[in-house]
């Protein structure tokens, strides 16, 4: 409680703080003062303990790559997948992260990669081999029907994605 009061006072007292550096010094002093803590962890220790040590995680440079997800020629389809192989160190419990990577393909610009309406995710790990990346259209728009039908308010076939898209991935 004493540390919290000192921290609150340091943040709230602006009477003598004409520069950001002065506020920073007061904040640093409030965080560093352990005289009233009687063996309690410091604020910095508490904050540090709340984060996971990621020093050994693969996405710091290893086990990272890109693949091409192909929805086919126009008009395309609502979903696609691509197998990522050659991942000899991957195990059943590995965590995989996949994303749309804004790198132009023959079909789409980098800007199109930033705004298109599909999601990607990875699943189906094969230990010592790789995994599969799936892409699924998330748009809820439907094509209009050729005949007016008051009982069919959703229209015709839903929108589809076409062509090749770059996806990034990493795993640990």
Features:
172 residues, alpha+beta, three-stranded antiparallel sheet, 4 helices, 6 strands, 25% strand
Could you give the topology of this structure?
Blueprint: H1 2-12, H2 20-32, H3 43-49, E1 64-70, E2 79-84, E3 96-100, H4 110-115, E4 118-126, E5 130-137, E6 164-171
Protein architecture, described:
With 172 residues, this protein is of the alpha+beta class. It is built from 4 helices and 6 strands. The strands form 2 sheets. The protein has a 3-stranded antiparallel β-sheet with strand order 1-6-3, with no helix packed on it. Strands 2-5-4 form a 3-stranded antiparallel β-sheet, with no helix packed on it. β4 and β5 form a beta hairpin.
Summed up, what is this model?
With 172 residues, the protein is an alpha+beta fold.
Spans where pLDDT lies below 50 across 5 or more residues: 6-11, 13-35, 42-60
How many helical stretches?
A: 4
Helical fraction equals 10-25%
What overall form do the CA principal axes indicate?
Answer: elongated
Percent of residues in β-strands: 25-35%
Q: What profile does the largest beta sheet have?
A: 3 strands, antiparallel
How many strand segments? Answer: 6
